[in-house]
Amino acid sequence: MMVFRIVFLLLVMASAGCTFKQAKPPANLQFSKIERVANTALYELHFTSDVDILGPYKSLIGVGLLCALEDDPDFSDGHQMKKFMSGSVTDDKSGTHLDFVSHVVFSESVANGNSQRNLSPEEIKKLLANRKFVVCKFFASATMIDTYFSNAMYVPVEEILKAVDKH
User: Fold this and answer.
1) What are residue 105's DSSP bridge partners?
2) Contact 152, 73 (CB under 8 A)
3) What's the half-sphere exposure (Cβ side, CA atoms, 13 Å) at 47?
4) 73 φ/ψ angles, rounded to the nearest 5 degrees
5) DSSP character for 10?
C-alpha cells in the first residue's frame, strides 16, 4: 500500500508542472463600440464573439482583453508591451450570451515592466494620430492549461478618439 501512495504522489507531482493545450478553437471577435466612463481613465469596450469565450473553464486565473497601441502585436505569455490598452472582460448584460464588455485603461509599462501608469487623453491622441486601428486579443488563463488567445480584433482608431474626446 505504501508503494502505491509513493507512485501516486510522484505522478501527481510530475503532472503538476505540465500544461495542456486548449481544445477550444480561437474565437473571432467583432468590435461594437467604445465609451469613456464619465471623466475617468476607464473606458467600456463592447464586442461580440462567435463562441462563448468565458465558457467552461475550470480553475480560471484570469480573463482579459489586451490591445497593442504601438507596432508590437506580440501577445505571447511573458511579453510586456510598452504601450497598451487592457482590462477585464465580463458578459454584456444588455446583449446576448455572445456579447461582452471590457473595462479598459490605456497604459504605459514603466520600471522595466514592473509597474504601469495610465496615459492621458492627450498622450492617447498623439500615440494613435497616424493609426487606422488597434489590434486586440482576448485571453484566458487557467491552471494546468496554456493561455487561450482569441483571433485578433481590430478596433478602429476613429472610434477610440471619439470616446477619448467625450468628457
Assistant:
1) 86
2) yes
3) 29
4) -85, 45
5) H
Cell triple for residue 22? 486548449
Helices and strands (H and E) in the chain: how many: 3, 9
pLDDT digits (tens, 9 = 90+) for 27-79: 999 999 999 999 899 999 999 999 999 876 667 788 999 999 998 877 887 77
Contact 128, 160 (CB under 8 A): yes
Quote the CA–CA distance of 80 and 97 in Å, as a whole number: 31
DSSP state of 20: B
**141, 124, 142, 150: which is closest to 34 by C-alpha?**
124
Retrieve residue 152's grid coordinates. 485578433
Beta-strand ranges (E) seen in the chain are 29-36, 43-49, 60-68, 83-91, 99-110, 115-118, 133-142, 145-149, 153-156
Model confidence pTM above 0.70: yes
